[in-house]
Design goal:
Elements (H helix, E strand, L loop, with lengths): L2 H14 L4 E8 L2 E6 L6 E3 L13 E7 L2 E7 H4 L12 E9 L2 E9 L1 E8 L4 E3 L12 E7 L2 E6 L1 H5 L2 H9 L49 H12 L1
Parallel strand pairs: 5-7
Antiparallel strand pairs: 1-2, 1-8, 3-6, 4-5, 6-7, 9-10, 10-11
Length: 232
């Protein structure tokens, strides 16, 4: 999506809905940026992520979100800066993207989330054509705030960048389902043992309750008749 298209959508959303559109403001590598709040799924705190060997620069790690693995990419690297460091204020902004034609949930690591601001259409200015702090193709517009201007990022273009896609692919094999912890050593319960299995050539065992019952033995009827004849 082009920056001008993203800017028009933000202006249309502000006009069609409420007077102001909510934007999330966060910091990356000492600079502030903003994203439309509707484009962010969740804000998840990430204190420390396990390091992955031979990981691409944009790959921050893999976090567990409700027992599901989510690849976390480093927004600072995607914007052309240096790799971020894990800190108590570090957060991951989750968003959906398409990777190889499949919808994929990705976390975008930022240094800290500061606030939510409402922007009216007049508060949104065109993106600069030239810039030195970030790659201008990732900037959809500029937000006028009390401290000056804050770049509004085009998250779709950031997640579609080759560095981010390479990071997500590299973590694809490592981001398998989490392994459940091993159960403690407990002696097996005899009641849990499976029933014994008879060999194939053995006759099937018949339960005692299923055996046919007979109240008269063989020949007993004839002896009874003989005794009655003798008595007569």
């Amino acid at each position: 999506m082009r920056a001008s298209t993203a800017r028009r959508r933000m202006r249309a959303g502000a006009t069609a809905g409420s007077e102001r559109v909510q934007h999330l403001v966060f910091s990356v590598d000492g600079e502030e940026y903003a994203l439309p709040l509707l484009g962010v799924g969740e804000v998840v705190r990430i204190d420390t992520l396990p390091a992955m060997p031979e990981a691409p620069p944009a790959l921050r790690g893999v976090m567990s979100l409700r027992d599901e693995p989510v690849v976390v990419v480093d927004l600072a690297v995607a914007l052309g800066g240096r790799k971020g460091l894990d800190a108590p204020e570090s957060c991951a902004l989750t968003a959906m993207t398409s990777l190889d034609g499949r919808p994929t949930l990705v976390g975008v690591a930022v240094d800290a989330v500061s606030r939510v601001i409402g922007l009216a259409p007049d508060d949104i200015a065109p993106a600069p054509r030239l810039g030195t702090l970030v790659q201008v193709e990732f900037v959809a517009a500029m937000a006028r705030v009390e401290r000056g201007f804050v770049p509004i990022l085009d998250l779709e273009r950031v997640l579609a960048s080759e560095e981010v896609r390479a990071a997500v692919r590299a973590a694809g094999g490592a981001a398998g389902p989490p392994v459940p912890p091993a159960p403690p050593d407990v002696a097996p319960d005899p009641m849990d043992a499976p029933p014994p299995v008879a060999p194939p050539d053995a006759a099937p065992a018949v339960p005692h309750s299923a055996e046919p019952r007979s109240t008269t033995r063989a020949g007993s009827g004839k002896r009874s008749r003989r005794r009655r004849g003798a008595a007569q």
